[in-house]
Write a structure and sequence with these properties.
The chain is α/β, with parallel strands linked by helices. It is built from 16 helices and 31 strands. A hairpin with a 3-residue loop joins β10 and β11.
Length: 623
């Protein structure tokens, strides 16, 4: 049985020839549906050409069956209802088609239908006498091909259709080009509201994300081809719903499962696929939804979190793929975090807050951090066991490759002795032939660094770094290492400490990683503390592995003038007198210089006009 589970299938399509963004001028993004220009006829960018039906009202929900999201869907359906009751149909096509699971899946789907009905009863206006929620038995292809199962969808009394979560690929294998899908299309065209959660949200975009490729996941989301896309502009049935959005690609569990990286790479691939006119990426988080009207506007964000909007076209973003792993390199990606009281126009790609339209930013260059000393500073996002550490050792050997060279490992916080020993062993394995001294606890003092060729400053327990740094002698030792030692590596949580601000919140475990991803987009989560200020940026290590994407926006919210730099594991920022560059897989810079931020009623960070720049291995950090 596979209900309400994410999908991770298959093999990627071969990417098309690389094209830059903005081959179509921005004005054409606002072209009316069916406009006669060649550019406007591109399906995903400009409307529902080629006979594709247009959606009415879609309500994608990012995951879960939270009462407030079910109630919000019911209110949307009620707004279009004319009878005495609000009548809903529940579609379980994403649950799985294995015959041995059929009875159990139907039972669970029936429970979800009853849950939706009860939420509807509590939410709809008093003018209605109540709600109904019928389960349409659409679990396998035979069900969808049987016209007898279309009755509920075709019933003129039906006001809303709700697609349950599970596996979006299975859902479309059941529904695509079937009488059931045609009935859903006709229902949407006559005003029936179509919504769904998780996989039920993913199918609401015609070009559909169908999971990661193979065993890849959020940590690899920025790599080319890491996402399995089912494009909606060809003749096969690997796509989302026929009447799904062509102006947006919806992604679900967005903050919860750290999917900003995959949306960035997916839109870059879409830009290539659709010849310079990618759709808008719309990431909807768990327990959160948004109302999409006529494939024209997003509005009425509801639930527990925010809705992310990612746009490669408005700022004429450019992109390429770099490094051995072919990770994304992109500039000027425009992003927003929608909360209540915002409307987003999918045609013109403009955000309105209250009654004021927010103009896009100019995209001026952000302040590149400079090296605070005379040597090389490598700011690691978690590089133990990666080629980045080998590179640092090579830099140290270039200063002194003799046995007289000295490497000092300063270990901070809990577990420092064990962690320091691991870095010492890794340095020797990488070819360091000089002496290695691991210094922890009360021995962390400036004099421990006397004559050092290189220094590793490490510590990966944020909660215990604060007490360690309360000792001025420890702060002085770290400062001396960074400013005076020829080659310095900071890694893990300590990398955050050397910047303008850092978060003492403990690193998440596998058990609470998804909760941490949601929390990172809340205004009260980071509990920022002043850093040592040695690097003029806010540094967020373990960006993808710890699901800390929200910290980039949290930093912008407290100081929009200071760039926030997210560093993935096996990656680093290298600062020298010649400038700043990326080492390893990926570095992401959030530029909020022209942004607006606020805190929503549910505590989420709201933001407009945050620009993201993504850097691959070996690139200089600059816009």
């Amino acid at each position: 049985m596979t209900p309400d589970r994410p999908h991770r299938p298959g093999r990627p399509r071969r990417p098309r020839t690389l094209l830059g963004s903005c081959l179509v001028i921005t004005a054409l993004l606002a072209a009316p549906l069916g406009a006669g220009t060649a550019a406007a006829s591109v399906p995903t960018g400009g409307g529902h050409g080629h006979g594709h039906p247009s959606p009415g009202v879609l309500v994608p929900i990012g995951g879960g069956y939270e009462t407030d999201t079910l109630e919000a869907f019911a209110r949307s359906a009620a707004a279009h209802a004319s009878g005495p009751t609000v009548d809903l149909v529940v579609v379980p096509a994403a649950y799985g088609d294995a015959p041995e699971d059929r009875a159990e899946n139907l039972e669970l789907a029936g429970e979800r239908a009853e849950q939706l009905r009860a939420a509807c009863e509590d939410a709809v206006p008093a003018r209605f006498t109540g709600c109904t929620a019928r389960l349409d038995v659409l679990l396998d292809r035979a069900d969808a091909l049987d016209p007898a199962n279309d009755a509920a969808l075709a019933d003129p009394a039906t006001d809303g259709v709700y697609v349950l979560g599970g596996d979006q690929g299975l859902a479309m294998q059941v529904l695509a080009d079937s009488p059931a899908e045609k009935a859903m299309s006709a229902a949407s065209a006559r005003g029936v509201v179509v919504g769904g959660t998780s996989a039920g949200a993913a199918v609401e975009s015609r070009s559909m994300i169908n999971g990661y490729v193979g065993d890849l996941g959020p940590a690899e989301g920025l790599r080319r081809g890491s996402t399995l896309m089912w494009w909606g502009d060809d003749s096969d049935l690997e796509r989302g719903l026929a009447f799904g959005s062509t102006r947006a690609i919806y992604d679900q569990h967005f903050h919860q499962r750290g999917r900003l990286g995959r949306t960035l790479s997916t839109l870059a691939t879409a830009d290539e696929h659709f010849r310079g006119r990618s759709p808008v990426g719309v990431g909807v988080d768990y327990g959160t939804g948004v109302r999409a009207t006529g494939d024209r506007t997003l509005s009425g964000v509801f639930g527990q979190g925010s809705v992310s909007v990612v746009d490669l076209e408005t700022m004429c973003s450019t992109h390429a793929w770099g490094g051995a792993l072919q990770t994304l390199s992109a500039r000027r990606v425009l992003t927003h975090l929608m909360t209540e009281d915002q409307t987003y126009d999918l045609r013109t790609r403009t955000l309105t807050r209250g009654h004021a339209t927010i103009a896009p930013p100019r995209g001026t260059p952000w302040r590149v951090p400079h090296v605070p000393g005379k040597g090389t500073l490598v700011l690691g996002g978690g590089v133990l066991g990666s080629p980045v550490l080998d590179d640092v050792v090579a830099r140290a050997r270039a200063v002194d490759a003799s046995t007289r060279g000295r490497l000092v490992v300063l270990g901070l916080g809990d577990g420092a002795a064990t962690l320091g020993a691991e870095y010492a062993d890794a340095a020797r394995a990488a070819g360091w032939t000089g002496s290695v001294r691991v210094v922890t606890g009360d021995a962390v003092r400036e004099d421990a660094l006397r004559g050092a060729t290189a220094a590793f400053v490490v510590g990966d327990d944020p909660a215990s770094l604060g007490p360690a740094l309360a000792d001025r002698r420890v702060r002085a030792a770290v400062t001396t290492a960074v400013r005076r030692t020829p080659v310095v590596l900071t890694d893990g949580a300590v990398t955050g400490v050397v910047g303008e601000r850092w978060s003492p919140v403990v690193r998440p475990s596998d058990d609470d990683l998804e909760d941490a991803g949601i929390a990172a987009f809340r205004a009260d989560d980071a509990r920022w503390q002043r850093g040592l200020g040695l690097v003029d940026a806010t540094l967020v290590p373990h960006l993808a592995s710890d699901n800390r994407w929200g910290r980039l926006y949290g930093s912008v919210a407290v100081d929009r003038r200071t760039p926030a730099i997210g560093v993935l594991d096996h990656s680093a920022v290298v600062l020298t007198s010649r400038g700043a560059s990326t080492l390893g897989e990926s570095v992401v810079v959030a530029d909020g210089d022209e942004a607006r931020t606020w805190t929503s009623a549910n505590g989420s960070i709201g933001a407009a006009n945050v620009l993201l720049d993504v850097f691959a291995d070996g690139e200089r950090l600059r816009r």
